[in-house]
Structure formats: C-alpha cells, structure tokens
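Reviewer 2 asked us to include a model.

Predict the structure of this chain.
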Amino acid sequence: MRTVVFAVNVAHSRHITERFVAAGVAAEHLDGTMPHDKRDAILARLERGETLVVSSCGVLSEGWD
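Predicted model (structure tokens):
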C-alpha cells in the first residue's frame, strides 16, 4: 500500500525514510529544499507504485491528496 508520512523536520523525515529502506520498503524523502523537478519525479514514482512510502517535511500539506 502506498502512503505518505508527515515528519516534524527534515532530519526526522530522512530517518523515517532510512528505516523503511532498511526494512526493504521502497521509500523516498521529500522536502522544500529540493528542486521542483526532483519532487515531481518522486511523486510520479509514488503514483506509479514504484515508491511505496514518501516521507515529507513541509512540502505535502494543506490541500494535498
């Protein structure tokens, strides 16, 4: 199942992503300092099911489905 995690800060989001990856789950980190094209690529992989977990800090928030 695909899911999005909302972390409290960037370090927390990176840690969450590392833990999922260590457990064999396709996961990626996303934050506001990343270029828009990289963010779009991560979200496209989530949409296609290539990435199962996206951990976000300060990017996916109000109004995001």
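Residues 10-22 form the longest helix (13 residues). The mean pLDDT is 90. We have added this to the supplementary material.
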